[in-house]
Amino acid sequence: MKPVLVILLTLSSQVLAAQPLHFFGFFPSVSQTGVIHSKFLYNVMASSTVDAFDRTIENVHYPATQLQLYIQPGVIYNLKPDWTAAVGYAFARHNLFGLRVNENRLWAQTGYNHPLPAGRLTHRLRYEERYPLNKKTDSQSKATLFRYQLGYNLPLFDSKKQKHGFSLTASHEFFLCLTGATNSPISSKNAFCGENWSFVGLGYTTAKTGRIEAGYMLQNLVRNPHRDHRYLHLFQVSYSTTFRLDDLLVWLYTPY
């Protein structure tokens, strides 16, 4: 009986010690896509993850800060109208409440979308190599992972008659860590499926200037080997637009 009580007390103490962290903030992003030539396109995306409120949890102070600045250029190839492949680079500047890490990333992905009786379903599979540099220790490491995103878009207008209007969007992305970084908590491996992003929102596609979208994003991260979680509750606002490079040249060389 005594060994059973010891095991139960040990398990209960671990459960009580596990403290999920909840933070609240904003996740603005902007994306620009343009045609290079024929089936080739380029895309540049930038985003910022902001923890907007000071918090003190278990006598630890977490100040409001910009947790991440992210910039991602890439080249896209249209294999088919509903199937793409892309490669690119990304830079992420992390500030984990005072721990500063700069991270270079190389990535390759493929995306596919298909219609449903109502709306469209999208799939995106990405492979990433991450090279985080711990600014405090000046040490570098490497992480590799797969990311799979499942998305859904439901236009609230007749897409056969018009190209602009409101739509509902939802997505969920799994981060599957193959190898983790060892020089900081950034991109470390605490679980095989160590991170999940969920989003639901409302978007509006304009006739000419692009698409704006707003909604709620939850970023769930396994933050340590004890499998404690960190939750980011974010208000996401994104703007995406597309134009052709030749249209830009016409604008640049048109006299006023």
UniProtKB/TrEMBL annotation:
Record flagged with keyword Signal: yes
Entry keyword annotation includes Signal: yes
InterPro entries membership: DUF2490 (IPR019619)
Pfam families, sorted: DUF2490
UniProt keyword list: Signal
Endpoints of the signal sequence: 1-17
Protein name: DUF2490 domain-containing protein
Originating organism: Larkinella rosea
